[in-house]
Design brief:
Blueprint lengths: L17 H4 L10 H11 L10 H8 L3 H13 L3 E4 L4 E4 L1 H12 L2 H17 L2 E8 L2 E9 L13 E3 L4 H9 L2 H14 L2 H21 L2 E4 L6 E9 L5 E9 L8 H19 L6 H4 L4
Antiparallel strand pairs: 1-2, 3-4, 3-8, 4-5, 6-7, 7-8
């Protein structure tokens, strides 16, 4: 039997935003060239040492000529390094410095790490801490409980928001206004059929989150993967999620509730620690 979860505000149905269905007004404050340049930096993934113009263009869905101009500008600013022999780009010192500063300033990682590391080791699962990145979820920390069966998810890995338990947990924790904005982005980025499938999954996850404080995804991201997640709300308004998952044969559906209960307790402990209270870690992450 699942433990009773403290009352939270209902997420409400995911009704379409009729105003968003029309052509959205152009944002006069947004610099599109800058946005495209940042997209180019985001095209690099873990393990990518060098990327050429064609690869970059295919990942950001921009013309090669545009990518070439953006890459030239980013190279001049130190965010990319160009190899004239291979005619390919790699991330430059400015990009690496910004990334390092961002991670070092995310104190939630330091608070969450011992909890997540212990859970990964004890339950032999992939355990992670993530945040929203447009229509995706980005891991800002990840731990492998058993490297022989790990999912190879690392800090910087991105997953689809709508199809994952982590993404749905973050959506649930947002304010109604923020949630509506992200749902509109998701709807616009998918075909009607894809959105309908995602909408059904999100609504089901919201019901579980409201009742129990966690939600699961069994084969919705990848057929062979089962995962469960809990939202993490910080006092300053930032929203994250923690999750745990692994191959379906090691994480059968009947095991998800137990894992979810532990994640919910860990999320509560991290929230208390970030608010100034120091919980007792040993007692908070025991099996429920």
């Amino acid at each position: 039997m699942r433990p009773r979860q403290k009352a939270v505000k209902s997420a409400g149905p995911l009704q379409p935003n009729r105003e968003a269905a029309a052509e959205p007004p152009k944002d006069s404050q947004k610099i599109e060239a800058l946005e495209r340049g940042l997209m180019l930096l985001q095209a690099f993934r873990r393990g990518d040492q060098h990327l050429g113009n064609a690869e970059l263009a295919s990942r950001v869905l921009l013309p090669k000529a545009t990518v070439s101009r953006l890459a030239y500008t980013l190279t001049a600013a130190g965010f990319l390094v160009f190899d004239p022999v291979t005619r390919r780009y790699s991330l430059g010192p400015s990009a690496i410095a910004v990334g390092s500063i961002a991670l070092s300033n995310t104190s939630v990682r330091e608070i969450a790490r011992p909890y997540l590391e212990e859970l990964a080791d004890q339950m032999h699962l992939n355990v992670g801490l993530g945040m929203q990145d447009r229509t995706q979820i980005m891991y800002i920390d990840a731990f492998e409980g058993n490297p022989l069966i790990g999912l190879r998810l690392y800090s910087g890995t991105r997953l689809p928001l709508a199809q994952t338990s982590m993404g749905r947990a973050i959506l649930f924790a947002y304010s109604p206004q923020k949630r509506a904005e992200v749902l509109d982005q998701l709807r616009e980025s998918q075909s009607p059929r894809e959105w309908e499938q995602a909408r059904v999954g999100i609504e089901s996850a919201f019901r579980d989150l409201e009742a129990h404080g966690f939600c699961s995804s069994a084969g919705e991201w990848r057929q062979e993967i089962h995962a469960v997640a809990a939202p993490l709300r910080l006092p300053d308004g930032r929203v994250y999620a923690i999750n745990a998952g692994g191959p379906a044969y090691l994480v059968p559906i009947e095991r998800l509730d137990g894992i979810g209960s532990r994640l919910r307790s860990i999320a509560e402990a991290i929230e208390q620690a970030m608010g100034g209270d120091t919980p007792a870690p040993d007692s908070l992450i025991q099996d429920q």
